[in-house]
Amino acid sequence: MVRELTVALGERSYPIYIGEGLLQEAASYFDKHGVSKKSPLMIVTDSHIGPLYLEALENVLRASGFQVVSAVVPAGEGSKSLAVFEQLVTKALEGGLDRKSTIVALGGGVIGDLAGYVAASYMRGVRFVQIPTTILAHDSSVGGKVAVNHPLAKNIIGAFHQPAFVLYDLNTLQSLPPRDVRSGLSEAIKHGLIWDEAFVAWCDDNMEKLLALDPDALGYALFKGCGVKAAVVSVDETENGLRAILNLGHTIGHALEAVAGYGELTHGEAISIGMIGSAIVGVKLGAPQEVYKVTRRVLGKSGLPVRLPEHFDTDAVMRAMMHDKKFTEGSIVYVVPTAIGKVEVRSDVPASLVRETVELLKQEADWQ
Amino acid sequence: MVRELTVALGERSYPIYIGEGLLQEAASYFDKHGVSKKSPLMIVTDSHIGPLYLEALENVLRASGFQVVSAVVPAGEGSKSLAVFEQLVTKALEGGLDRKSTIVALGGGVIGDLAGYVAASYMRGVRFVQIPTTILAHDSSVGGKVAVNHPLAKNIIGAFHQPAFVLYDLNTLQSLPPRDVRSGLSEAIKHGLIWDEAFVAWCDDNMEKLLALDPDALGYALFKGCGVKAAVVSVDETENGLRAILNLGHTIGHALEAVAGYGELTHGEAISIGMIGSAIVGVKLGAPQEVYKVTRRVLGKSGLPVRLPEHFDTDAVMRAMMHDKKFTEGSIVYVVPTAIGKVEVRSDVPASLVRETVELLKQEADWQ
């Protein structure tokens, strides 16, 4: 079965298709959405995903008459740089891409962000199609946030550029390493925690199936995760208000990523610890104990880390938080859960409470 | 007097203020438009304009409580590069600019394009204010097209990012070299030729005043030039249709710029020759002879070149035209005048006619 949902953004609305084997059917989706056959399209992928799926995708597209240029960048966050961005623009120019061309991201979040920023900028914006190959990318495939990194800060150079459509082939998820599976589930669980209590309960009940990559369970989780994000983004496309709730767990999470050595924590692992921290802050500010217990239980079942390794220096974590771009005009924006499936954005959370929480996150025993 | 016009783009609408001494009154305009005093703003200027006006602008803004960071880049097209773009992002990060910050372009078209692309990209888009200091910049200050160059093509990396407002201080134009004055008038005359017969007649009658930098005449010409562009852009913000008429003279003009050695032709000079070429094409396709005569007379009065220097190789010019991004899906988009103040966009102009026109442009005697 193919699940379909629409990200409702007026004239920039677009569908997300989720199902098994969609890569093989890519040409019909490209046709349906009017991707040009007269202008070349460019597939951007990385050195991990390229060997697995690039040739197959090129073949099905070429067999239907599409002109295909491909670019393979090194796998990893290092490719989200202005230097690689410029190389892709060069490739697009050399490949003859024009204003009617489409850029296709085949890969995870790094490829989506990088290729998306190329699509946003090339000739001041061309069409963009996402073919995510990780669970985590369900998050970045909704909302059009694209960016590259600057040596001083992540995602600081970017744009809002919505794709024409998203094609999620569940088969491409079968080869994901377990750590990437868990990291992807982290954002899916986050979507439940901010918006959808029933989906959190479903995750609680179906975590084993998810970890075993059961296609139907995965398809459902991606559908729900994308659905929550789509609902939020529809209200607030350019992150001026409601969209801030998507940062649950990210204030501490980003700081941990900044402080951790390369590879120590994935993004999903960092925000897992961050979400536990947010639950602690929530309870301390009056939310029911349940908020902490359920958050702790679901994340724990998934095998994601729920404690902060002791060697993390609290001062360093606090300093990293102060440099994060979520700080606007000197005040801190913090997403605080008030119940499972419900959060509020507060700007009055004392730094002392956050510091105390970071300390509590390091304790072996469960908090409280 | 301060002339004011609005670029009507729905929620992205913005005003252009044109008058003498507006730089000294900048703070009140910044206040009026809600530029943040809590978040630093960054002024981007170049090594020619900086020494003339930067300190004065910094002083009036700081005196009113704005936090000001400044960045001075080398004057010239060379600064419209990804490398300088990255330096400006670094400067913005080091200066503590956040999502509520504003980027201010103080300078000509290069600075507007460069600073505008920084504003479009920094933290996925911050506010942007333009303070143009050339006549030519009246063109780029309307419509939100911002970009940097790639070694293989001009303006290929960019965005559509509308300013919050534009502040045109006529006093800053008094020090313009005569060649820059003429080049700026070239785009103003173009706006008349595509849209406003009466303004072309006014230019014909008032060219001496314009060349003498009479403030009232200049203010009127900028008001009319911006007005035409605003009318066109309001209908077609992202260059999908009508906006193509703004490319009158640019098909040949861009090719001449690409072929010419550095500094041989300014943009305004190149499109002046290009507009003569367009008039020739127009008459050959059935427009009244008047179209050529008036175009020739007004551009001639301004001192702009109306003939192509003989050493330009016709083959090279034709090849350069084929690489221009105005070619979509293999067909050529050419803006052809049908009367003074009226043009049509045609995609059926034979390359042979354009080649013949390039040859005619080299002839010493007036054509026909």
Automatic annotation (TrEMBL), chains A, B:
It is found in: Cytoplasm. Residues 72-182 form the 3-dehydroquinate synthase N-terminal domain. Binds 1 divalent metal cation per subunit. Can use either Co(2+) or Zn(2+). One of its GO terms (cellular component) is cytoplasm. Residues 184-326 form the 3-dehydroquinate synthase C-terminal domain. Keywords: Amino-acid biosynthesis, Aromatic amino acid biosynthesis, Cobalt, Cytoplasm, Lyase, Metal-binding, NAD, Nucleotide-binding, Zinc. Pathway: Metabolic intermediate biosynthesis; chorismate biosynthesis; chorismate from D-erythrose 4-phosphate and phosphoenolpyruvate: step 2/7. It is an enzyme of class 4 (lyase). GO terms for biological process: amino acid biosynthetic process; aromatic amino acid family biosynthetic process; chorismate biosynthetic process. Its cofactor is Co(2+); Zn(2+); NAD(+). Zn(2+) binds at E187, H250, H267. Its EC number is 4.2.3.4. NAD(+) binds at G109, V110, I111, G112, D113, T133, T134, K145, K154. Pfam families: DHQ_synthase, DHQS_C. It catalyses: 7-phospho-2-dehydro-3-deoxy-D-arabino-heptonate = 3-dehydroquinate + phosphate. It comes from the Bacteria. The keyword rRNA-binding does not apply. GO terms for molecular function: 3-dehydroquinate synthase activity; metal ion binding; nucleotide binding. NCBIfam families: aroB. HAMAP family: DHQ_synthase. Catalyzes the conversion of 3-deoxy-D-arabino-heptulosonate 7-phosphate (DAHP) to dehydroquinate (DHQ). Belongs to the sugar phosphate cyclases superfamily. Dehydroquinate synthase family. This is 3-dehydroquinate synthase. It comes from Paenibacillus curdlanolyticus YK9. The lineage of its organism: Bacteria, Bacillati, Bacillota, Bacilli, Bacillales. The gene is aroB.
